[in-house]
Design a protein that fits this description.
single chain, 208 residues, alpha+beta, Aspartate Aminotransferase, domain 1, 2 domains, five-stranded antiparallel beta sheet, 7 helices, 5 strands, 13% strand
Length: 208
């Protein structure tokens, strides 16, 4: 039978990308010291106090654990996945912007079937693979794809038409009535994924 800290750790590991994981991790940080036989910052002699103090610590830890279990339960019931939030954004727009965002999303998934969808900065669809690939922002008159490392990508088709002055990002602004060169966009997305992958490998090599 697993202890409370072990259960919370497993819950966090299984839900790494969701709000429930953050609640579980917070719970783990709070309750683990109460179940530990070596409390950080205490002299060894004070770590092994009598059974009454031990029971008090355990009771306090269990109380906090129960409180956080209820919070985690509430989060899990109310949390929406990033993919669902993006679905809702597309439906809420209900116009040409929603259609373009939906098409962009489809092209990204076709270019990289392993892409991860996220909902960042309180409402920005974001696509990840070893780091941010791009975002899909919607404004009144434009749908903007911002590539996190666009300045480092080759763009032979000239898709980038916005944020051209920076040294890091590049963007593609799509207006009503404009079409998307999907073949060129897929190539750009795959190049962004490859760039992220090379950066991730370099970091691992440095650590090892």
């Amino acid at each position: 039978m697993r202890t409370c800290p072990e259960l919370f750790a497993a819950l966090a590991a299984e839900n790494e990308q969701h709000a429930i994981a953050r609640a579980a991790k917070s719970a783990l940080r709070i309750i683990t010291p109460a179940f530990s036989t070596k409390q950080a910052g205490l002299p060894r002699g004070r770590q092994r106090e009598g059974p009454i103090r031990g029971r008090q610590d355990e009771t306090a830890g269990l109380g906090k654990a129960i409180e956080w279990i209820l919070r985690v339960k509430a989060v899990s019931e109310n949390a929406k996945s990033p993919s669902r939030l993006i679905d809702e954004r597309i439906n809420e727009l209900g116009d040409w912007r929603g259609e373009i965002l939906a098409r962009i999303r489809a092209v990204i998934k076709e270019a990289d079937p392993e892409v991860i969808e996220e909902w960042k900065w309180r409402g920005v669809p974001t696509w990840y693979h070893d780091g941010i690939i791009c975002t899909g922002e919607t404004y009144k008159n434009v749908v903007k794809m911002t590539f996190a490392k666009g300045a480092s990508l080759k763009d032979p088709s000239g898709l980038f038409n916005s944020s051209l002055e920076g040294n890091v990002r590049r963007a593609i602004d799509i207006h009503q009535g404009e079409t998307i060169d999907e073949k060129a966009l897929k190539a750009l997305i795959r190049a962004a994924v490859a760039l992220n992958a090379s950066g991730a490998k370099a970091k691992k090599a440095t650590k090892s």
